[in-house]
Specification:
single chain; alpha+beta; Rossmann fold; Dna Ligase, domain 1; D-amino Acid Aminotransferase, Chain A, domain 1; nine-stranded antiparallel β-sheet; five-stranded parallel β-sheet; 23 strands; about 30% helix; binds adenosine monophosphate; binds glycine
């Protein structure tokens, strides 16, 4: 079958790398793709916002499955337009993608369905927000309702800071809608599921590193590194996440007439009173997808097609399709990220992949015969090992072989789990 992959970041490079290994794949197209994706796919300069043009491309090239990587085209309704054209799509409709596109929608759905999450207030009025915040305790969690590429969340330490942040959130010309919520204490874990709208296939767990600096310091980013699986999510906790959070979400959306088809990513806080949902994303995580793809052993193209066609198998044992190894990825970013990254710096991959690591390209562009940085997160250097420490060592050995004078990376990816492993082995 021919597949069109939409997107051009590290997540999509990992999907392209895995799809290219599928026995059921004939030709992989990618729009817009990137130089890394171009090693596995024919990249095509399609305007993703032009849904009719994407549909016409699919007809002209006998594409039988479209895999949509990023959230923006999903929230914009690309999957709906293609389905109307009769193309199978892995990725939710605009209505179902509101789980990520509107934090208020996701919170209301949780409340309706009894899904454990942080207590919250949703409002479009600054006055009401100012009053509502008084009912919470520091730290105060304030969220802009819509898509904000990870930048719509403020955690304010004091009431004064919270009031300033609220004024800021409402300062725009069109006003705003915000969610104010209770701060959850605990360890964060990313849990993935594939669903065809009815059946749910558990699809692994991972832990991300959102802060830019070592020791989880500095501003939030899209993610500076990740590893899978996340042993902190014990089988018992994992079962609770699926039964108390993911299954009721999928059931509610279907009952509402908006079945969710695609990858569902739950950001979960493991609190003293059990797992609680922090947020939903309507896609794979980036860079969590990179580690999941390194461990997935099946025919990805066939699996995503079954999902898109409403034919997922009845739940196999959780994670049955993953190698029982560990994978770890280190994001190499351009200096300045997550502020203004320094773009255009030359990137030499050298022998980074010689030891079995895979360098997924996130923000690169070809200039003559070499690669240059074209985004904040530039590479995701990913390796596996029998144990997490082995995966970590292999990934960092590969990072050291890369030439990128304008780059930086965290040196402590995996620290929580590595510390636990060290304590256990004492
Ligand atoms: P979000 O965009 O909703 O994932 O929020 C970004 C990050 O802010 C999350 O990954 C958490 O680390 C943190 N965060 C969001 N909501 C909460 C909350 N209610 N309690 C504690 N931390 C939170
Ligand atoms: N790594 C976090 C995300 O993809 O949202």
């Amino acid at each position: 079958m021919n597949i069109l992959l939409v997107g051009g970041g590290g997540r999509e490079h990992a999907l392209a790398w895995k799809l290219a290994q599928s026995p059921s794949l004939t030709t992989l197209y990618a729009a817009p793709g990137n130089p890394g994706i171009a090693q596995h796919a024919r990249t095509v300069p399609l305007d993703i916002d032009d849904h009719a043009a994407v549909g016409a491309f699919c007809r002209a090239h006998a594409v039988s499955l479209v895999v949509i990587g990023p959230e923006a085209p999903l929230v914009a309704g690309l999957a709906d337009a293609l389905r109307r054209d009769g193309v199978a799509v892995f990725g939710p409709s605009a209505a179902a993608a509101r789980l990520e596109g509107s934090k208020g929608f996701a919170k209301d759905l949780c409340q309706r369905s009894g899904i454990p999450t942080a207590r919250y207030v949703r409002t479009a009025s600054l006055e009401e927000a100012r009053r509502a915040v008084l009912a919470f305790q520091a730290p105060f969690v304030l969220k802009a309702d819509g898509l904000a590429a990870g930048k719509g969340v403020v955690i304010a330490e004091t009431l004064a800071e919270a009031e300033l942040a609220l004024a800021d959130l409402f300062a725009g010309p069109g006003g705003a809608e915000v969610v104010i919520e209770e701060y959850l204490h605990g360890e964060e874990v990313s849990v993935f599921a594939l669903t065809d709208g009815t059946r749910i296939l558990p699809f692994g767990s991972a832990q991300d590193h959102k802060r830019v600096g070592d020791g989880d310091t500095g501003p939030n980013t899209g993610g500076m590194g990740a590893y899978a699986p996340a042993p902190v999510l014990t089988p018992e906790l994992c079962e609770r996440v699926y039964s108390q959070i993911i299954a009721p979400t999928v059931d509610t959306l279907r009952a509402d007439g908006n079945p969710y088809v695609g990858a569902l990513y739950a950001g979960v806080m493991l609190t003293a009173s059990g797992p609680r949902l922090i947020e939903y994303n309507c896609r794979f995580g980036d860079p969590e997808c990179q580690v999941l793809m390194m461990l997935y052993r099946g025919d990805l193209a066939a699996l995503l097609l079954r999902c898109a066609q409403g034919e997922l198998d009845d739940a196999p044992a959780p994670d049955a399709h993953f190698a029982s190894r560990s994978a770890l990825t280190v994001v190499v970013a351009a200096k300045g990220y997550p502020g203004q990254p320094r773009l255009g710096g030359r990137v030499e991959l050298g022998g980074a992949e010689d030891g079995g690591a895979v360098v997924f390209q996130a923000g690169t562009r070809r200039e003559g015969d070499h690669l240059v940085a074209s985004g904040g997160r530039v590479l995701a250097v990913t390796a596996t090992g029998d144990t997490l420490p082995e995966a970590r060592d292999a990934a960092y050995r590969a990072v050291e072989r890369i030439g990128f004078a304008d780059g930086f990376w965290r040196r402590d990816i995996g620290w929580r789990e590595l510390r636990r492993a060290a304590l256990r082995s004492r």
